[in-house]
Fold this sequence. Notes:
The protein has 181 residues and is mostly helical.
Amino acid sequence: MKEFSDAIFAGVSHSGGIWNFFDSWYSALLDPDVDVLWIFFEDLKADLEAQVRKIADFIGLKGVLESSEGDGPIEERFEVRIKVAVSQSKHSFMKEHIEKFDEHFVFGKRKVAMGLQDLRKPLVAKIRADGGVVGSRKIIPEEVSKRLEEKWKAIIESRLGFKTYEEFHQEIIRIQNSHYN
């Protein structure tokens, strides 16, 4: 983990890191002309169905169902789609259908350049063995944790005023609840 974090902090990633991502999307969330729905992994783990319903409401699924033909009342068709989405968002489904959640498309296009033309499948899938249990990873080394905190202070706290991730998370939930409820 230390080598990975050294590379990230050295600028290997050209994406700007998660902190700039948070900053830019938080700004979008505050813009009244932009519709943003922010879903957190820990909220998905805590109540998957509630988050799926939130997404369905945000994208206007009931309106889509109203304008399309189908058997049965809209509410029943809506509930069927919610159940399917919840079922197919669970670790057990993803593990059973791992080929739908790996990097086979990108891998297929890049494997020759990587010198891996004889491999039929990518070596790594996106589905974690433990199902993505919050807090299940090894404890972050103190040195890495300190660097993460410094980066948080330099970007998120200095630009947005949030001292902790939890404070940031709760404020986003509060803003979204005021926008969409």
